Sequence to fold (161 residues):
Amino acid sequence: MSPESAERNFHDLDTDGDGFLTRYDYMALAQRRLTQTGVPAETPEGEAVVDAYLNAWDVHARALDTDRDGRISLSEYIGSFETLVLTGTLDKVLEPICRATFDAADRDGDGRITAAEFRSVWSRAGTDLTAAFGRADADGDGLISYEEYARARHGLLIDPC
Fold:
């Protein structure tokens, strides 16, 4: 876990670019995922995505907002992110997000996502999606299982690259 990966994650979460993470940013991320996958917010899948992101906000706010001003600064995030990783809190927050976004992307409900479905939920700027899909597809079957997807999402957060 490097400060660079924590900083990169912070900027990925800061949807409005104001230098702080707020509940708004997490809601905007949920909405972005719903728009990308074409899943309406009022469906069970859509509600799961929104709930997962808002749960992430609640956990992050409790753990990272050290001055309790209702927002998380870059320095608060970087200073506490390693603790989230080491205590397993990151995994507890990430699992519902992974499950909800995977299920939203898995439009045919077969428990695997195709390269096209993968593109609807993998949105880090500057990412070669073909290469990212290939790395995530650990067994090389041309499809990504939930386990492969969850491993790839976790790696994206803690990988210094």
About this structure: The mean pLDDT is 89. The chain has eight helices and four strands. The chain has one domain: 3-158.
